[in-house]
Each structure stands twice: as structure tokens, then as C-alpha cells.
Amino acid sequence: MIRLTLRELNARKRRLAGSFVAVLLGVAFLAGTLVLGDTLENGITTLIGRAYEGTDVSVRNAANVADQPGARRGNINAALLPRVRAVEGVLAAEPVIQGVGEPTRTDGKAIGVQGPRTAGNWITDPRLNPWRIAEGRAPRAPGEIVIDRKAAGDGDLRLGDRTFVLVPDRVPVTIVGILTFGEADTLGGTSFVAFTYEDARRHLLSIPDQVTSIAVKATGGTSGTVLAGRLQDVLPPGVEAITGDDLAAENIDAVGVFLDVVRAFLSVLAAVSLLVAAFSIHNTFAILVAQRTREAALLRVIGASRRQILAGVLVEASLLGLAGALAGGAAGYGLAALLKRLFTAMGFGPPTLPLSYDLSPLLIAVPVGVVVTLVACVAPAVRAGRVSPFEAMRATAVETGGRFRPPAGAVIGTAAAALLTWAVAAGNLGLAGGGAVLALIATVVLGPLAARPFTGLAGSALPGVTGRLARENTLRSPRRTAGAATSLMIGVGVVTLFTIFASSLSATVERDASDAFSGDLVVDAGGFGNAGFSPRLETDVAALPQVAAAAGLGNAQARIDGEVRGVAIADPVRLSGVLRLGRPADGLAVSTDTGLAAGTPVRVTFPDGAVETLPVASTFHPIGGFSDYVIPRSAWRPHVAQQLDARVYVRLRPGAVLADAEKAVERASAVHGSPDVQTRPEFVDARTEPVRDLLMIVYVMLALAILIALTGIANTLSLAVHERTRELGLLRAVGATRQQVKATIRWESLLVALFGTAGGVALGTVLGWVLVEAGGSVFDLPLPPIAIILAVGASAGVLAAIRPARRAARLPVITALAAL
Known about the structure:
Domain ABC3 transporter permease C-terminal: 268-389, 700-811
Distance between the termini: 24 Å
InterPro entries: ABC3_permease_C, Macrolide_Exporter_MacB
Membrane topology: Multi-pass membrane protein
Strand content: 15-25%
Main location: membrane
Pfam families: FtsX
């Protein structure tokens, strides 16, 4: 039986080509996403490890009030340095000062980078300094800095250039050295400038007799763990000693949260592609089994058992899955390289990370590809095993079964509707996810029932005899029509879902801006990773004659009653002039969502570890995208080394010309690195830009799933052409031209694609509405993009029919009439 299966596989290799491609592409996507995830993890782990490889122990502030990667702790007393150096086992100890310092071009405009803008002191001991001077020398005099090669290149800066560093106030400097981080031009996506120790104390610390930490090198034979214990014994309360390995692991774990999100996102897209591939494979084998019904029945007549028929189909599927999975696994590395470049171009990863060539993605992707292929073929294999010997007397296969489909679909659909309704009412995204899975299953189960009326209605609009023939062909096998369309339906549904999500997010931001922001302009630092500008900009903008009110706002984290919370740093009274905060008093302001009333004491732990109890001075109604806690600048300033604003909200005086006011604000912002000055629409657009970038990545990655779906449609049509060889020959014999045969196949493909695309848009719209409503956002249905999706889906159906239509038209009439 195995020998017969191998012969059958060889004889039908052209018919299985589409399934092979589906497995290959699905596994390539999975392997590519796994390789990309490993690349990000290995690269970031390596970079962080290099940053701390020379540090055996770090002495730092013990307070931790943030859960974001790269969040800085409070400073420690510089007087601890002699005490640290005196501990047995310390070979070298250097003070480390770190803060925010953004380099500018020679014209004073900030150099934009993807990650944190870091500044610090130049560590003179090379054993404790991961940076190396590639050109020039170390800073020695006041006003001298060294800068990483990447930032210098981006800012067109060279040795000897005079420029500025925003700390956040503008400091004039001279570049005396160009740095590299090992062989890399920078550390990940960051920028780095280093001052002399005295300049770093002056510019980066609010209290000069402090340092950020102390880096310690152990003597030979002394482990970091032992030395950290000795140091802890001599350190005061609130200061801790941590080994370099633990410090690196801590930072890796912090970044790991981001990596887990990226991996989950990639895994979802890979799962979509594999699901699309599974439906394409299932449909192909279902057709092949139906076409080979008579053959299976003849095997039963000569003594083959049901188990042997079943095993034959599964062996065929296993070999197909293994071949496709191996090819897909190899292709995954090339796809990972393309995805890495795409992520880098979109600003989602540093460009210096080398691609990981670990074999572990293959060990996962290949078995998954084989298992998915087998699972997709189980139902057709079982159907083949149930073929009766009497089927050998039939001239053609008959589509049977499906009597349980309507009640099963109704039950699953009702459960999905109930769960989705519950998710919207409870605002629970987990319930929405469960309901989405049930909705997808219901769509698959009920697909054949919907295929007949849809293709019948749509087919009635097709012109001529070829249109009527195409309509009848889709109507006589609704299960096959639905099977071919399901894979496309899933891909289009996911694209529609993300499109609606992005559009709804934009509408939500617009609503929040309209409900909360009463101003006209926003000065936005943009970017991420500690980007910001000096709070002095608030005063400079407020002094302009066109401006009625201006209020700066910084974003930070603190522990509120023991819990890490995002907080806004601003003057609540001034902020109420541009945001609708009611009538806040001078003091801590909280939203009504916190459940706190005016006068309630709130325990606040600041970044330096200090704890204060602040009474709630006022409350305000919640504002979307805005923190529930506003801490006054006066309360925040003593506890941080640098204070940064992320935005300045501006309200103009009545009669002020918007364009003139915008130029005036831009001139005032020039000395602060020229952050973006945006009108309200531009501000909303900028807030949604990251989502649009992410959506572009989703579109590009899901294009592979659509390609798999179209391959499935083309394969289904090719098999249908082979099945209808006699029928096509009869059509040619009675006068049908080759062009009419081609048109029939093209119309048939168009009907299948329209069914899949329309079903996907409908499914994606419903699930998008549930997701948006459960998340508490504003639902917005973007009609132009959805119209484009429908048009592209229909056009793709025509493209999928090119090869099957050409093959059908080229069938010789005599050969076709002689076909059995």
C-alpha cells in the first residue's frame, strides 16, 4: 500500500504543487518570525551583556519606582566612592553619571534617534568603559565631549565641530572624539555623548555631590557575588550593590517584556498564515479524495481495508508536509532577513543586529508544518477510508454529507454572538478573543450554506453564457467553493480587523483631543526613550504675544500607594488653561477613575526613594491618553536630577493668526532643539503614526497569507479543470471558443474571490467593532480602505485564474472527449 501511495504521489505531483507551496509559505512565515524573534533576543542580550561585561559590581540607589526598560533610578552620594575603593577585593572603582543628553546639529536642531538619548561622564578606566575612542581623544577640558559614530554621522558632525547638547538646557560643546561600542557605531538605537566628570556633574545632576552609580572591578580571584556582599556591608540604607551579571539580567528581563510582545505579535501573524495554509491544503485533499472516490472503491473491491486507504492518504499528506516544511524552513531564514530590514526601516529595531542562524526555529517550524498538514488532511482521509466498494460503479463522485452543518453552525454562531456581546458589555478583551475564535469556526462551518445564495446572486450579474456556466459550476459544489474561499476570507478578515482598529484609534485620539484639549498648537518632543525638552520652553512660549496660555507636561513613573503608576508632571492650574481639567487647585490632581476624593492622603514614592504623603488637591474627569495622576512640578523637582517636558500645549489669543503663531512658537523652540510644532490635526496624526507604521508591517506580512490563499484558489481551479476535462471537451465540441473557456474559469475564480473577500470584510468588521468597543475606543469604519480591500480581493481572484484558465483553454478537444 505504501508503494502504491508513493506512485500516486509521483503521478499527481502537479496537482499537489499548490499544497506544497502553501506548506512552504506557511512554514517559511513561521520560521522567519521565529528567526526574527531569536535575532532580536540574541542581539539585544549581546549588546546589554557587552555594556556590563567589564563591571563586576555596581553600587546604586536601591529604590525602584518604574517598570519600563531603561528607567533611571535616583542618585547616590559621591562620598561613597572612597569607602567603596577601600573594600577588600576592589581593583578599581569609577563614578558613573548618566542622564539625558540629546546631541544637536551645528545649527542647534536635535538629531533624532530611535532610542534613548544618553549622556554621561567619560570613564577613564578602559576596564570599566565599554566605549572605545575610534577617532580623536577623550574629553579633558570644560566644554569638550565625545560622541558615538552613528549620531555623529546622522548629524553630519566631525572632530573639532562646535555644536550643542540638550541636557535639557542647551550647552555649547566641542567634539574631540568619535566613539564606537565594540565594533558597532552605537549601542542599539541610542545616542551617547560623554563629558568630563566635572561637566557631567554640572550639567546632568541637580545636586553636584551625587553620582548615578559606582562601577566596580574586582581583583583576580574575587567573584562579583562575594564582592557585592562585602560592599553591601559598608553601604548605608537605600544603597545596594548588585553584580554586573545580575544587572545585565535585570535589563534583559526589562527588555524581555517588549520582546514578548513582539514575539506574540509575530506569532499571531504566523498562526494566521498557517491557518490559511491549512484550509488550502484541506481543500486540495478534499478535492483529490473526491476525484479518487472510484479509485478508492476499486481498491476496496480487490481487498484493501479502510485502514489502508486512510493510511495511504495520511502518508501522502505526511510526505507532502515534510517536503514543504523543509523547504519552508530553509526559506524562513531569507524571509527573516527581509522582515528584519522591514522592521528596521519602520523604526522597530536597531539596524546593527546580526541575523541569528540558530537551528532551533527549524526544529519548531518543520514539525509544526507537518502536523498542520496532517491535521488539515484528517477529514479527507477519513472520508476516503469510508468509501464503499459500491462506489466503484459510479461514473462520478457525488458531494455528500453536511446534514449536521446547519444545526452545528447555528449553535456555534449563537455561542459566538453571546460571547462577543458579553465582551462588549464587560469591556473584556479576553472574552472578545474567545468570541472571535468561535465566530471564525462558525464562519467555516456555515460557509457552504452561505456560498450557494451568495454566488447565485453575484453570478446572476455575470454576462453571457460564460457567466452562467461559472455561476452553475460554483452552485453545484458549494462546499468546494467555500473551501477555496475560506483561506482568503481569513486573510482579508485580519487585514480588515487591523484597518478598522487603526482608523478607530485615530478617531479616539481625535475625540480625546477635542474633549480635553482646548488649545490650538502642541509642541511635541516626539520619539521615545527619555526624549524631551527643557521646562523653560513653557515660559518662553507663554511670553509670546499670540499666546493666551501655555502649559508644559512631562511623563514619568512613581509608586502611588505602593503601585507603579504613570504620572504627569505639570502645574495643574496652568495646565487647566489648555486642558479641560475643571478647576484644579495647586497640588496633586487625580482623575475620578482613581476613586480618590479631594483631601485624601496619597503616599508617593519618588525616583530617588523619598516617600511623601500628598493630599489630593482636586479631581478631574478622565481624559483618554492622559495620566490619572498629575504631580506638581514643585513636588517632583527635588527628587530628580533632570526634569523634562514631553509636550507644551498652547492656546492662542482670540484673533491670532494660526500660521503666524505657529512660526513664532517654532522660533521660540529653536533653542530647545526645534521639537515639532503641530496644529491639532497634525498632533492627532502624529499620535497615530506608530499605529500606521505597525499597520504597514501587518499589511506586508499578511500579504504572504493572501498569497497562500490565492495559491489555494488557483490550485482548486486547476483541480476542477482536471476534473471537468470531459465537460470542457464537450463545450469545445459544441462550439465554445478558447476565449469563452478562459472566461468561464475567470468568472468562476472571481465568484470564489468575491465570496472570500466579502466574507472576510464582514467578519473583520464585526470583530473589529467588538475589539474597539470592548477596549472603550471610538468605532470608525474606514470606507475607502475597505473598498480598496474589496477591489484588491476581486482583482486577485482574476489573477489566480490565469494559469488554470490557460490550461483549460489549451486542452485538445479529442483528448478531452476521450477522458474517462
